[in-house]
Amino acid sequence: MPPAALDGGLTGLDFVVITIYLVATMSMGFWIARGQHSTEDFFVGGRQLPAWAVGISILASLLSTITYLGMPGEMFRTGVGFLTRQLGVPLVLVVVWFLWIPFFMRLNLTSAYEYLERRFNYPVRVLGAILCLLLLLGWMSVVVLTASRAMAEITYLNLPWFFGVNTPDFRDADLHAIILAIGLFSVIYTTLGGIRAVIWTDVIQFFILIGGALFTIGFVAVDTGSGLSEWMEAQRAYPHRESVEWFSWDIGNRSTVFFISVGMFFWFCCTHGSNQVALQRYFTVKDVRAARKSYLVSALSSFGLSIILAGVGLSLLYFIQHHELPAAAGVESAEQAIRYDAQDKVFPQFIRFYLPAGLRGLVVAALFAAAMSTIDSGADSISTIATVDFFRRRRSSEVSAQAELRLARTLTASMGLIIVTLTIVLYHVSKGTDIISLCQKGFNCFLGPLGALFVLGMWSKRATARSVFPAVLAGELFGVCASYSQELFGWAYSTHLVIPGSWLVTITVAQLLAVILDTRADHEAQQWMWRSVLTREMQKRSS
Fold first, then answer.
1. What is the mean pLDDT of residues 408-432?
2. Residue 462: inside a domain, yes or no?
3. In angstroms, what CA-CA distances link 268 with 107, 188, 328, 332?
């Protein structure tokens, strides 16, 4: 059957399912909003949320549609070798469990960047907050674009008249309409429920997405009469799969096991040790034990999700060799047919053409909710940073709890409108770029220096504001240059080494400047280092 003969799109049943899901989600936001009376409720949920739900929310918010759609696509490019990114997970578990969580949970923070002022000064706090704002804006734009691309492939709205567009290629119009719809619902929803609504929406979204992935694997197995052994054989014989090396001196090779593992180790460590989205979720539980339970749930869920999505990629790689999909057209004759932008379309097109009515609508609703969840997660964190690190820090008089809550909701709603604009711009400048590469160029270039800033504060006695401020700027310059090395310098730099490279540059420059300037943290600043914070806690318990 030629691709043109395929018939897809949403049915009436699919639209009913989507409507029910969105109404239920919005209703939950209204219901939760009734119990909010302060920014403490809005930002950290009263610090009484269940640990298991927070753990799932951490995973759902940080990975979202990027992993859900990106990993099956990467399986087309590298096969099961892509799972080697999980090799660094045990080390991440040690760092987060024993170093990050005990430290941050004893500081009683609302914004993570409050710590930077205690350890250094207010300008360094502002620098950290700005880096996180840039990180979150880029992250939200990439995730919303990812979900919108998928929904455009699945729904087949065919809206060439939208915005007066008169072209046979209706994809631009569909993307604009979907992005605007996501922004509209998010603006309403994010001004209501705060972090509590975000977390419970994440939980629902996670289980629906998992259900869609498992159904995909089962559908392919039944439809083709195949199983894991046949899928593994197909991916080994696939003519366009990139070989995965364990190690290479070529820093432009993004398929090296060592580079993948190092990159993921630094991503997880920097995210859980400096990103407001992750840390704010830990702040919603009551103590260190609950935070560790949340992280354990998140780590186990992440590992399980990776295995399931790897199965989706393997099954679809086998499926397209027996069934037609537009993205896979000419796969046997053109090496680029299943690479980059095309590799990310196979899963959405499978949902569109082969999933039954009703279930297709449920997956679309989940993708819609994933994009909404990303906006409300990031917007809530941005609102927290703006309120705590800027407005509250610089206000000259007392403001009532209700007035501050109104400000927080206004800031959160404004983020929805900003993200819609940024996502549309990103769509037009990133055509032909795969999801994994887009992450590095869109936001991960900010994460390495931010993570290094916290590490310097926790463990370097020589680190002061004079040494870390220029070091962070140097690390950020390296991160941007590494992310856009091909465009700027004409040579490739592995996307997996952007975060560790910028982290290392920041640490190295800070230490060198500390020696040159002969700086050392004073006694008060050293009281906010890792050992001092935990020692004070132990002394409180013993007394």
1. 75
2. no
3. 21, 31, 33, 37
